[in-house]
Write the structure tokens for this entry.
Amino acid sequence: MLRTLSAVKQRAVQYDLKTETAPLVVVVSTTGTGDPPDTARKFVKKIQDKALPVDFFAHLRYGLLGLGDSEYTYFCNGGKIIDKRLQELGAQHFYATGHADDCVGLEFVVEPWIDGLWAALTKHFTSTRGKEEINGALQIASTASQRMDPVKPELLHIESRVELLRLADSGRRDSEVQEQNAVNRDQSSALIAESEPSLTHSVPPLSQASLNIPALAPEYLQVHLHELLGQEESRASVTPVDPVFQVPISKAVQLTTNDAIKTTLLVELDISKTDFSYQPGDAFNVICPNSDSEVQHLLQRLQLTDRREHCVVLKIKGDTKKKGAALPQHIPEGRSLQFILTWCLEIRAVPKKAMLRALAEHAAGPDRRRLHELCSRQGAADYGRFVRDAHTGLLDLLLAFPSCQPPLALLLEHLPKLQPRPYSCASSNLSHPGKLHFVFNIVEFLSPTTMEVLRRGVCTGWLATVVASILRPDTQVSPAEGGPAPAPEISISPRTTGFFHLPSDPAAPVIMVGPGTGIAPFIGFLQHREKLQEQHPEGHFGAMWLFFGCRHKERDYLFREELRHFYKRGILTHLKVSFSRDAPVGEEEAPVKYVQDNMWLHSKQVARVLLKESGYIYVCGDAKNMAKDVNDTLVEIISKETGVEKLEAMKTLATLKEEKRYLQDIWS
């Protein structure tokens, strides 16, 4: 038999790993700052019991596939934690561990790893049960649709588990659609002549290849649209799990100059009439809608504009082949189509290959062929370049492939939930009672299909529009004359991950690293520390270091006056600022460009704080480059200042993380 532990969602409750002799396959992702996913934590906690003997899993043979994103420091760490612990308890690999990287495309590792799994299973079963039995089992798994003879019950279980891991449906050959270059030769000849591929067309060899495409996901939703008789719709049902607070925006300030590369806004929320509470370093969710113009374009493209106010009624199709089919929990009952597209579905989400495969069923000619290419194994590079990396969304695809006419049910089955966007609290409730500050850049990028169209981020673009009526520049100390504009309101909800807090011992020294908007939680730290020192003038407070960076000193030096204030008062004992785009003036020495460069200049002090004074280091900001570079610099600093090899320095840094003295709040 073959056991699967996909994302460890099934845990060990369905079977007992203490006695399991069948090969185990584990597929696990990574969340947070290198932690296993929530569904795996109970399992991980059990196997990390220090009382377990070293031969506890000596009978177990397993293969593990870790899913992660190399933009984050602790790549695939959820899988690595389980992998390491299973080996410590005596388990052995029957198949080598794979680490799939979402940064470059999970399929580049996942698909070869699954292909190799069959050979590994063959070898395992051959050595344990005999070649004849495993050959029969794998033959059953690959030709189930043609089976006529009875099968041993124990082999049927192998078949069912093998099928769970297949990218295709039962009968692999049925899902490998062989499309020859002769198909639509006349229509595609002009495309083949093009020297460069694009979202809508390919070039040889892909344009001439036979394709292996994934199985078509079974349809399972039946959708009806009924007239909605004038009921008002509220957003309360969008996030039913968490408490939602409707709060007014009391202030909005532009922190950057108009010629800065990015526009940064500070927003103040009035939470005085709510039960919302927070600590400096906490984050919270902003519940945001999709762009109204994009929703209207999507309705037009689906030819449903005249039914946008109709109520969406969902049922499970009676003849669906989808196992365990259930209504999507993120689509509330009794809501209009426009409400669902606006508040419930991530219409900008990059479509998975399963969705491309489904869209192809409703396209014709070259459009159908190209959609098949983009979801095929042969088209993995084009999918990465023109879909995933270009952040191509559903509306982009529908504009690019005009023959594609998907039904509404397809969208509701494949589009994920519109997630609330997290933001760091940039204030202290001691300094600003009843208020909550947060900071964000207005994200802007070009549309992947029409490059002349500038788009804004889903949440930041919406927030910028919401605060436009009350926005003022940083230099303006009071609202403009003519009376205050009515305060707009937004919905927020708390986040439960409260790990990014100041040390419980105020005497512990602190190093803060936060370029750009990564400075947000540290403004809250400094405000909080200032009030604590006012309340306890005789108290002992540790040193506070801040490594901040931006592009230009005169354009996007966020919170410059506040930081100078904290520095003059001795709250902030060390302020180190770097400007990555400012050129040296006259004959002065070239300025330090990045926060990690400044850290290296002060390597002795950084090492002393962390290794000799039991200090804490906090890193907030971009995961893709900054967090990695800061982590690498810390390794170099520890290696240099303690005279140890890099591997030993990495272990020291890992210990700091385990002790919760190296904390990250990072995003991509």
Summary: Residues 7-13, 137-193, 475-482 have pLDDT under 50 and may be disordered. The chain has 21 helices and 21 strands.
